[in-house]
């Protein structure tokens, strides 16, 4: 579960620390106090896309950390497979945002990426906001509810792998089909390109070797001059003192000194070795001079060869390796074109076989969805009846479509909210309050087959009040018996049911706004519940009613 959330310099929050508990945690506060900032912070630290615009005005960076305790063994193993050790089944996520756009992410104090935070975060927290109720208006999202409920991921993956291969074969058939003149033209072009590259006789590394040899030939006079000077330095020619001779003399003097001062003998021996080394170097310089020659015809030959390579590079790649790779691909393509009729027949045969197999897999998907849809619609319907919609009826409509990445099903959830009404798409008849309750019912049903330990509901009570609000609260309370629930709410009927209550309050000091989060004790809860009930002033009667709601 999410045990602690620390926020620093996010929007109007300068610093705050929130300790959550198991069960139902509620967050309340006046409109504009900053409840959405809490959700934004949780999204940020679990790897969701965010913007540097949320950094508090006047600050260079913002920081969020989240501590998850009692993490399941399955998630701990996944974290360890990604390189993060975890003691006491605890994971600590942190993310720092800067105005420069740089993100610094850590898991258990080890560097991580935003994508890693998200990969692990989706297994720790599910956030259900108002926008998800709007998703119900889009029929395309409905199929995921049924698939998640039905646990048909293996069937979906098996089907998708076949479908992906089917599309690949279809592209081959489409790209190669039809125009014989185009094929003949491409055969001629490829033949010419392959022969041009083969006739060049290219070797990997050849260009670099030729460039080096060209550089030597073009600068042979300079090279000879420098070598002559180096030889003169060592041998004493041309008026220079001989380095070899000077070293030898120094060694002799050190030998003489060693007759009186023994430590000088070691230095003499080292100079003697150096003298032999210098003589060897002098001989090698002679060899370099003997091998150095200016050959205009060889230089012209190299320039012509480099020009040939340059022209091929302009056509076929930026290096000899890429030119040879182009040739290999061209040969493969030429082989395909030459054997076009044979290849097409084989591809068409494979395509027909795979099409039948893929369709059969899509049928199994449809059957699984029909079964899951019946169970799902019945359970959602029962949940919605509890949520003060006693006459609601839910149906899952499945129509056949051409094969797509998800199968052959066009799936849509239909609703009849009142007796005698024909089931229609959610977008046609559902009000805001009905959408909120339907979304909660769906999430309740899905939560029973979901392994995520923390569910966050952001104003799931939108559009409802009174008895319906209380029932939404009771449903959240029921869900929280098996997992942690965090709920942002405006409804006293829901807030009074929380095991833990956090007040988000806004203060203006000078010309700056500061938002803080306080965990309320019993008296604080009574005061806050009385405020939510409304009225210009909080009276003893509203406090008494708030206390009764807590006790009940």
Overview of the molecule:
Helix content is 56%, strand content 18%. With 552 residues, the chain is of the alpha/beta class. It has 3 domains: 1-129 and 454-465 and 479-525 and 533-542, Rossmann fold; 138-177 and 339-429, no CATH class; 206-328, no CATH class. The strands form 3 sheets. The protein has a 6-stranded antiparallel sheet with strand order 2-1-4-5-6-7. It has a 6-stranded mixed sheet with strand order 8-12-13-3-14-15. Helix 7 runs antiparallel to helix 13, helix 9 runs antiparallel to helix 11 and helix 12 (296-316) crosses helix 13. The longest helix has 47 residues, at 340-386. It starts with a strand and ends with a helix.
**Total number of helical segments?**
20
- Give a quick account of the main beta sheet: strands, pairing sense, barrel closure: 6 strands, antiparallel
Percent in strands: 15-25%
In the CATH hierarchy, what is the class of the largest domain? Alpha Beta
**Strand order across the biggest sheet?**
2-1-4-5-6-7
Number of DSSP E strands? 15
Q: State Rg.
A: 39 Å
Mean pLDDT: 88
Point out poorly predicted stretches.
none
CATH architectural designation of the largest domain:
3-Layer(aba) Sandwich
> Which structural category fits the helices and strands?
alpha/beta
CATH superfamily of the largest domain: P-loop containing nucleotide triphosphate hydrolases
Integer tally of domains:
3
Q: Residue share in helices? A: 55-70%
State the distance separating the first and last CA atoms: 27 Å
Overall spatial form: flat
What is the CATH topology assignment of the largest domain?
Rossmann fold
């Amino acid at each position: 579960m999410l045990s602690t959330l620390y926020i620093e310099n996010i929007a109007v929050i300068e610093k705050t620390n929130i300790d959550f508990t198991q069960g139902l945690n509620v967050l309340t506060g006046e409109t504009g106090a900053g409840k959405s900032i809490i959700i934004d912070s949780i999204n940020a630290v679990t790897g969701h896309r965010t913007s540097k615009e949320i950094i508090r005005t006047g600050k260079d960076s913002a920081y969020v950390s989240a501590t998850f305790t009692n993490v399941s063994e399955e998630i701990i193993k996944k974290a360890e497979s990604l390189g993060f050790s975890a003691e006491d089944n605890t994971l600590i996520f942190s993310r720092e945002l800067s105005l420069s756009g740089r993100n610094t992410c850590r898991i258990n104090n080890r560097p991580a990426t935003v994508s890693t935070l998200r990969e692990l975060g989706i297994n720790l927290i599910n956030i259900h906001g108002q926008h998800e109720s709007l998703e119900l208006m889009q029929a395309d999202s409905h199929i995921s509810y049924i698939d998640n409920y039905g646990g048909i991921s293996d069937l979906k993956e098996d089907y998708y792998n076949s479908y992906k291969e089917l599309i690949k074969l279809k592209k081959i058939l489409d790209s190669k089909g039809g125009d014989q003149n185009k094929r003949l033209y491409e055969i001629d072009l490829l033949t010419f390109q392959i022969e041009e590259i083969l006739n060049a006789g290219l070797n990997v590394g050849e260009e670099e070797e030729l460039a080096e040899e060209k550089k030597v030939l073009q600068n042979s006079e300079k090279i000879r001059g420098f070598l002559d000077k180096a030889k003169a330095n060592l041998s004493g020619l041309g008026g220079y003192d001989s380095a070899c001779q000077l070293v030898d003399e120094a060694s002799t003097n050190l030998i003489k000194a060693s007759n009186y001062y023994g430590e000088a003998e070691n230095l003499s021996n080292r100079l003697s070795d150096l003298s032999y080394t210098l003589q060897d170097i002098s001989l090698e310089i002679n060899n370099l001079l003997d091998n150095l020659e200016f050959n205009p015809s060889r230089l012209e030959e190299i320039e012509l060869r480099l020009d040939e390579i340059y022209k091929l590079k302009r056509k076929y790649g930026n290096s000899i390796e890429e030119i040879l790779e182009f040739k290999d691909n061209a040969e493969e393509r030429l082989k395909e074109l030459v054997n076009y009729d044979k290849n097409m027949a084989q591809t068409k045969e494979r395509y027909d076989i795979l099409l039948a197999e893929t369709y059969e897999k899509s049928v199994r998907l449809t059957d699984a969805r029909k079964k899951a849809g019946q169970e799902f619609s019945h359970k959602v319907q029962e949940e919605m009846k509890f949520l003060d919609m006693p006459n609601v009826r839910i149906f899952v409509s499945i129509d056949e479509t051409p094969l797509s990445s998800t199968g052959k099903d066009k799936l849509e959830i239909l609703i009849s909210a009142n007796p005698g009404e024909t089931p229609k798409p959610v977008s046609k008849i559902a009000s805001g309050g009905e959408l909120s309750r339907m979304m909660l019912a769906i999430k309740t049903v899905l939560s029973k087959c979901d392994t995520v330990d923390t569910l966050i509901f952001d104003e799931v009570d939108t559009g409802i009040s009174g008895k319906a609000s209380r029932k939404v609260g009771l449903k959240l309370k029921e869900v929280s018996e098996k997992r942690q629930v965090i709920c942002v709410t405006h409804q006293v009927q829901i807030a009074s049911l929380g095991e833990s209550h956090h007040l988000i309050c806004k203060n203006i000091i000078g010309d700056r706004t500061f938002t803080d989060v306080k965990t309320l004790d019993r008296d604080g809860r009574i005061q806050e519940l009385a405020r939510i009930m409304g009225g210009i002033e909080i009276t003893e009667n509203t406090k008494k009613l708030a206390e009764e709601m807590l006790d009940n």
